[in-house]
Amino acid sequence: MSYLSRRAGLALGVSFLALTAAMAQTPPPARPVPADTDISLDTISVTSTKTPGAAVDALSGTSVITAEQIERLQPSRLSDVLRDVPGVTTQENQNDPAQAINIRGLQDFGRVNVLVDGARQDFQTSGHSANGVFYLDPELVGGVDITRGPTATIYGSGAIGGVAAFRTRSIDDILAPDETAGAVQKQGFGTNGQKFINSTALGARIGTAADVFGQFVFRNNGPYRDGLGTTVRDTGNELTSGLAKFNVRPADGHEFSGTALLQRFDFANSGTSNAGARFANAVQADTYTLGYRFARPDVPLIDFSIKGYYTTTHNDLTFLQDTASGLYGRLGTRAGSRLTYDIETTGFDVHNTARFDTWALSHALTVGGDFVQNSVRTTDNAGGFGGAFTPSGQRSLAGAFVQDEIRYASWLRVIGALRYDSYDLSGGVYRSSGDRVSPKITVGISPFAGIEFYGTYAEGYRAPSITETLVQGIHPFPAFNILPNPTLRPEVARTVEGGINLKYNEVFVPGDAFRAKLNVFQNEIDDFINIQTVGPTYFVPAIAGIPASICASIPGRFPCVIPVQSFQYLNIAQAELSGVELEGAYDWGRGFLSVAATHTEGRDKATRQSLITVPPDRISTTLGLRFLDDRLTVGSRLNLVEARTDLPTGATILATKAYALVDFFASYRVNDRIKADFILQNAFDKRYTQYLNALPNPGLVAKAAISIKFATR
Asked: 3-712: CATH homologous superfamily?
């Protein structure tokens, strides 16, 4: 029996005993579930179909993270929050605050469409870490909406892994409906590198005609220690961020909205393993959106929305010092030499939903389209490797879709959709393009109240990225070649998915609520793009900094004694991924319990080798208890992760051991104005390294924060 299986039974057993004990508390359990129930599956989601509905009702693998859950965990990185979502993991370089999201074993180069307030985040630089990251501090986030698999491709081109939509905070996060103006001041402190955070949010409503919101965040983190007490250098960073929003409603049903998000991150980076050349990084990540919506109950044929956006990520790296080999110095790089990455994304999304009936059928017919253009500019005066592996170029993606959600009585739902995608990519002397139509069909049947079965067949289409197509250069050491491939074909994903949604109230005691989603999937990806060795074996120098060209005349003789092959992004004939995901929550008023579990498998069908991006099995549970008329909430979070040792041949990612993490949290609301939060993360100071990461994670971390609200009615 595996580590995870043994501890899973123990964890669920402990949770059940705690649940039983909690339900036995006095006063009697007839007390109703509070309005702020911890069941996030009841929260509205739109990523599955673009039409709003509770996550538990979505006929897909859909999950939601609420603002309350984020505040309770006091995360320093979004990975602290996302680890409780089934089918979702992250990859990160611990000395860089950027994050990469992995859904069902798929990540990198846009396979997961990451949105911030509806704006795509397509930043990417190539190295030994993730090939596709985004910068967003969790203190700015008001909620996360995730749909797994290509069922969500109507939410953007290329999302064969899924969609992760982040909503930044807004006026409704700080003001109650009857409050007109106010501010929330939050300050937090922590141990083990978590020094200080300040968040100031303020907003005002002008009747129902308009509202404005602003937030300022400053975060200062230092290097942390792992579970053995060893300091992991260069894991600190500093953030300065500003967020501004407005909504204007000039007439009934009409709304104009805008967002400006500016983030500045400063940190030092020595590569994914702290063994490379050291650079000072200054990252400016900005997002701007402007939108219009018309929706009114008495005009059911029009629910129209259009949003334009512009995102830019600028990373300015200044060379500080060389590695022990002196590689960069031998190439002429000196302290102060600079490397810059600029990636700009411009796009828009437009759609309309018409609601009408035909005989006994109710329809929600959505028609829409989207466009996005990526522009990459790399300037490298610090060795040349950045310019080689993250080449400059442009790519445009365009799509259009039609979707009909059909309901018959209360027991049958059918969703049919078609999406058309096209792309055009250019850089240097190379250019490529392509297009395709992808179908989707979902059928949901509810034989009894509270239970719904669904089945889906969906296809997705991902165009190759600029880097996959145009990358060309020599690896620093050993000096093997990386070759471009302008003939890359787009990936086509074909997914079969089935699931069960459960929704019951009054299960054990009056006023309680139970929600759960279970789904299984099989995803086969034709022409999956992966980097592979190609061509004959040749010899390169064993001493860093010596040109590889000298080995043409003395192969196999010192110093040319390292045998290598070139690398190139190629289309694998087919990759297959399959898995099972479970998410459930129970709230009985005096407490709550949630469980999330994930099992994913993935392999190259030709070689039968596992895909390196497939994460290990994981189970997460959270138990919380409420006291003092719900003003005090205390609880614990348990995370069990299996080992990942079956790595493909030649993998540079390290195998990881199984581990178990325990967090303890408490939240006390003094009154409607003052709230205090406390959390112990990794409470038993476990030393562990998350799979796909090179550096060990933090040991024991304690955090405390206090929020004070000022408001007028």
From this structure: TonB-dependent receptor, beta-barrel domain (2.40.170.20)
